[in-house]
Specification:
One of its GO terms (biological process) is calcium-mediated signaling. This protein is mainly α and 704 residues long. The chain contains 27 helices and 4 strands.
Length: 704
């Protein structure tokens, strides 16, 4: 092979290994120019620019008319929001769309026409850009006066298509929908049957005084269906049954049966089905990611083989260790993995690596990220060794937890005693004195731990960082309090002498002390297990959170277009806008209950609150608007919350199993990803499967 061919094979191996690290497909062009463009496209600066562009185009909704740039969301008190001139946000949007055009052009070129025709996401990407640019031109032709902007609803697609994990999650959700539909259909049947029973049971009578249940909740079919749907969410429980229960206690049997069948059986059955099905589909998705990684590593081995002169009597191809060193120098990967691979190569006595050895070498990528804590300092003095033993012992930490608990109890006692006192009647001497004592103890404890463990080892523990930072903040606040108000003395009064009153400073210190009490979590293993599960879940929740942002964004934009102009709220006055489609059944807004759909941020907050307390004021929403909110409830509460529960259960069960089979991890921290969660149950691809996939590569032609 010539020098140019050698460089090409080295660069191909570098790209294939980077594809394997990121679980990317290797079905792209592999000539020298395309490889340079490919690495440049996936470089940090390019991906950062693309991410910034997605953020900017999504954030435009906060600035565009109707603008969300107001201090308060209350329409009675806020000033008219700033409306950007026509062409300002449109110019920014055009720049973003041009970046996306360049993005899809590069992607399409790199994978080639054959792969492009197989990639539905890229075709949808181009269609979204065509529709967005067309709508942008129409918007400018109307001088930005049009109310319906289709491109605003399509913007979340740019976030969705840029994340492979979000695509896999969405595919898993889509595959789970048929099983979920059966239970949702059963819920609909349950709701319909009980609606008919309710209309028969609470029918109108001759005595109007006894018809409160009929008037309030079961007047007609839509109202009856709505009342029971809200009862399914328990948002109107027990209000919906009070009139009937006041008339006859036996009516409660109807509502109890409805709630037990709907909430305890059907909703939990839906959670079980979603957990079972979604876990299976997510496992398949992760299995596909593992296969991509193995294919990438094997492709790197195959392109490096021609660089090594294989003896005629050799039964299998080999790769030179020197060539692999050249590749590793160019590959961008986690330094921990790179150092581990290089260390394995140096300790190996072989000059050549077989396919199995090459693949095993890169299994380092699949291992947990292990963080070893630095060693403690070694003191020569016998006295210092004794001190080190005492202050690094777990009992010293337990003593600190007891002191923190005593601090919390003392704060509670003082707060209970001063609960009904006016600020001028309070004497903060006692609280200030005990806070001063406890903060000095926290400072002493921190210094002694640093002395015993060394600063590097002390700082390597997250609990110590949390503890040390809060202690530093408490010390600064205490010194500031003494500088302004002097030392605690009888008659300490919370006069305003600086930026904050003494009472405000003491309250801030107390809140931080209460927050500092969370330091006990690492010492309680079961509680620590729950907390680490939640933290790992947050780390691995980016794909789920991204799809949730997509759903929120799309519903918020749709709500703005549907409800804009339906009502002009002025205090308690209800003004219906003539000619509006929702004029006859406009949203009723009062001082106590009002929803603002005029601005994007307000609508975003409205549907978020709505997600937590579904249809708390359903009687204030017009009949056709109920369809919008029911769709939101089905997607957010029924489907998405159950998917979140499924991931939470899977993460916790995995953590619990590892906790039961692993010794104490005081000096080791393991970091897990979604892929590593399923690592124990994944199947390794066979040699035939890998080679079959490589021979199907549209741009790579192997010698064998």
């Amino acid at each position: 092979a010539t020098g140019a061919d050698n460089d090409l094979h080295i660069n191909q191996a570098v790209v294939f290994i980077e594809d394997a690290i990121q679980y990317r497909s290797i079905n792209h062009r592999v000539d020298s120019k395309s490889l340079w463009l490919y690495r440049w496209y996936y470089s940090r600066i390019c991906q950062w620019i693309l991410g910034l562009t997605i953020t900017v185009i999504l954030a435009l909704a906060f600035v565009e008319t109707p603008s969300s740039l107001t201090v308060t969301s209350d329409v009675r008190y806020r000033h008219p929001p700033w409306d950007p001139p026509c062409g300002l946000t449109e110019s920014i949007e055009l720049l973003c769309l041009l970046v996306f055009v360049f993005d899809v052009s590069v992607k399409s070129y790199l994978i080639g026409w054959e792969e492009f025709c197989k990639t539905k996401w890229l075709m949808a990407y181009i269609l979204t850009l065509v529709v967005s640019l067309t709508d942008w031109i129409v918007s400018l032709s109307f001088l930005c006066t049009e109310t319906v902007r289709i491109r605003r609803i399509l913007r979340p697609f740019f976030l969705l298509q840029n994340s492979s994990m979000m695509k896999k999650t969405l595919k898993s959700i889509n595959s789970t929908l048929p099983e979920m539909a059966s239970v949702v259909l059963l819920l609909a049947v349950h709701l319909s049957l009980f609606t008919m029973f309710a209309m028969l049971l609470f029918a109108r009578t001759k005595d109007g005084q006894q018809d409160k249940e009929w008037v309030g909740y079961f007047r007609n079919l839509p109202d009856s269906l709505t009342s029971l749907l809200v009862l399914l969410t328990t948002a109107n429980n027990p209000d919906v049954m009070i009139p009937a229960y006041s008339k006859n206690r036996a009516y409660s049997i109807f509502f109890i049966l409805f709630t037990v069948l709907g909430n305890l059986f059907l909703m939990n059955l839906l959670t079980a089905i979603i957990y079972n099905q979604f876990r299976g589909y997510l496992l398949k998705s992760v299995q596909s990611s593992l296969f991509r990684r193995r294919v990438g590593i094997r492709a790197a081995f195959e392109v490096l083989c021609p660089l090594e002169e294989t003896p005629a009597n050799a039964q299998e191809l080999c790769v030179s260790v020197g060539d692999l060193f050249q590749v590793l120098q160019k590959v961008e990967m986690d330094p921990r993995c790179k150092q581990a691979i290089i260390r394995s190569l140096k300790t190996s006595s072989c000059d050549r690596l077989s396919a199995a050895q090459f693949q095993k070498l890169f299994e380092e990528l699949d291992k947990d990220a292990i963080k070893q804590h630095p060693p403690s300092p070694e003191y020569q003095s016998h006295f210092m060794q004794k001190l080190q033993f005492v202050f690094s012992h777990s009992y010293f930490g337990c003593l600190g937890n007891v002191v923190a608990l005593a601090n919390i109890i003392s704060i509670c006692v003082v707060l209970v005693m001063d609960a009904d006192k006016q600020p001028s009647e309070r004497d903060d001497f006692f609280l200030g004195a005990i806070n001063c004592f406890f903060i000095l103890y926290y400072l002493l404890e921190t210094l002694l731990k640093i002395l015993a463990m060394g600063f590097k080892r002390y700082w390597s523990y997250p609990s110590n960082r949390f503890d040390g930072l809060l202690t530093g903040i408490l010390l600064i606040l205490e010194i500031s309090t003494f500088a302004v108000y002097g030392f605690p003395h009888p008659g300490w009064r919370p006069e305003l002498m600086g930026l904050l009153s003494l009472w405000d400073m003491v309250r801030l210190v107390n809140m931080l002390i209460v927050f500092r009490f969370l330091r006990i979590i690492p010492n309680m293993k079961l509680m620590a297990l729950v907390v680490t599960t939640l933290l790992d879940l947050v780390k691995n929740l980016r794909a789920f959170a991204g799809i949730l942002v997509v759903v929120f964004y799309a519903f918020a934009i749709t709500g703005i277009m549907l409800f804009k102009g339906a009502v002009v709220p002025m205090g308690n006055i209800r003004i219906f806008v003539p000619g509006h489609p929702l004029h006859q059944e406009a949203v009723l807004i009062s001082k106590k209950k009002k929803c603002d759909f005029l601005a994007f941020l307000n609508h975003f907050q409205t549907i978020f609150i709505y997600h937590l307390c579904y249809l708390l004021s359903f009687n204030l929403i017009c009949r056709w608007a109920k369809i919008y909110f029911i769709a939101w409830w089905l997607i957010s509460s029924v489907i998405w919350v159950n998917l979140f529960v499924a991931l939470l259960l899977e993460n916790f069960i995995h953590k619990w199993d590892r906790h039961c089979h692993r010794e104490s991890l005081s000096d080791i921290e393991y970091q897990r990803t979604v892929e590593l969660m399923f690592r124990d149950v994944l199947e390794e691809p066979t040699e035939e499967e890998l080679m079959e996939r490589l021979h199907q590569h549209p741009h790579l032609h192997l010698c064998r």
